[in-house]
Amino acid sequence: MSKSTWHKSTYSDGGANCVEARQGTAGADVRDTQNREAGHLSFASQEWAALLGGVRSQTR
């Protein structure tokens, strides 16, 4: 799976609660910026699209 570079979520507060994501053609990965060595969670394209749709429908 070809992946882009990691980027910090716009929903991260800039303090201790930050996550990073990277998208590829088959899905996306998400990791904790303060615990990168612990690995990441991977989501298939359909799962990632559903997650983003749910987040976008919520108010900030």
Short précis:
This protein is an alpha+beta fold. It has one helix and four strands, in the order ββββα. The protein has one domain.
Secondary structure: elements and pairs:
Layout: E1 7-8, E2 19-24, E3 27-32, E4 41-44, H1 45-57
Antiparallel strand pairs: 1-2, 2-3, 3-4
Pfam families: DUF397 (PF04149)
Protein name: DUF397 domain-containing protein
Domain DUF397: 5-56
| Mean residue pLDDT | 84
How large a portion of the residues is in β-strands, by DSSP E?
Answer: 25-35%
Estimated structural class: alpha+beta
**Low-confidence segments:** none
**Sheet bearing the most strands, described?**
4 strands, antiparallel
Shape by Cα distribution: globular
Question: What are the defining features of this structure?
Answer:
four-stranded antiparallel beta sheet; 1 helix; DUF397 domain-containing protein; DUF397
Give a verbal description of the structure.
The protein is an alpha+beta fold and about 60 residues long. The protein has one domain (about 5-55). Helices cover about 20% and strands about 30% of the residues. It has 1 helix and 4 strands. It has one helix spanning about 45-55, and strands at about 5-10, 20-25, 25-30, 40-45. It has a 4-stranded antiparallel beta sheet. A hairpin with an 8-residue loop joins strand 3 (about 25-30) and strand 4 (about 40-45). The longest helix has 13 residues, at about 45-55. The radius of gyration is 12 Å and the shape is globular. The protein starts with 6 loop residues before the first strand and ends with a helix. About 0% of the residues are buried. This is DUF397 domain-containing protein.
